[in-house]
Amino acid sequence: MVDHKAKILIAEDDREFRDLLAFCLFRAGYSVTSCDNGLKLLEVLGGAQNRNEMEYDLVLTDLRMPALTGLEVLETYHDCPHRPPFICMTAFGDQATHEMAGKLGAAFTIDKPIDLDFLVARIDSFLDEWKTQNVEEKRHG
């Protein structure tokens, strides 16, 4: 079961789409914070990293944004052991973009336009698996 108090950080430069994503995830029971570009995403995540523990359970980021791209932020956190998982979104979903996001540690990349019900269900499922895996690792680790 998904912990519907899970915290999701959204980075999307299109205000209307960002607001729609935030609303859908909030309606699904998540705590949502959003930012409008990659630099702000990096700042928010950097503040959490300084506390040695990530504040967010998931980052949902667009790949092409002003200031910094989602891929650049993902690359910055690639080797961070306590970073939250990243799910990437792109309107330019060629195979190379998907592969690069995967190599940098994205859980998965989804192409726009996005079926929001599908996205919420995929996030629910992913977070269930992620939390179960982390509990198992802590028990055996």
Overall description:
This protein has 141 residues and is an alpha/beta fold. The protein has one domain (7-140): Response regulator (Rossmann fold, 3-Layer(aba) Sandwich). The chain contains five helices and five strands, in the order βαβαβαβαβα. Strands 2-1-3-4-5 form a five-stranded parallel β-sheet, sandwiched between helices. α2 (38-50) runs parallel beside α3. It starts with 6 loop residues before the first strand and ends with a helix.
Short summary:
The chain is built from five helices and five strands, in the order E-H-E-H-E-H-E-H-E-H.
List the helices and strands and how they pair.
Elements: E1 7-11, H1 15-27, E2 31-35, H2 38-50, E3 58-62, H3 70-76, E4 86-90, H4 95-103, E5 108-111, H5 116-140
Parallel strand pairs: 1-2, 1-3, 3-4, 4-5
Helix pairs in contact: 2-3
| Strand tally | 5
Number of domains: 1
Question: What is the rounded distance between the termini?
Answer: 23 Å
Count the DSSP helices. Answer: 5
Which features would summarize this protein structure in a list?
single chain; 141 residues; alpha/beta; Rossmann fold; five-stranded parallel β-sheet; 5 helices; 48% helix; globular
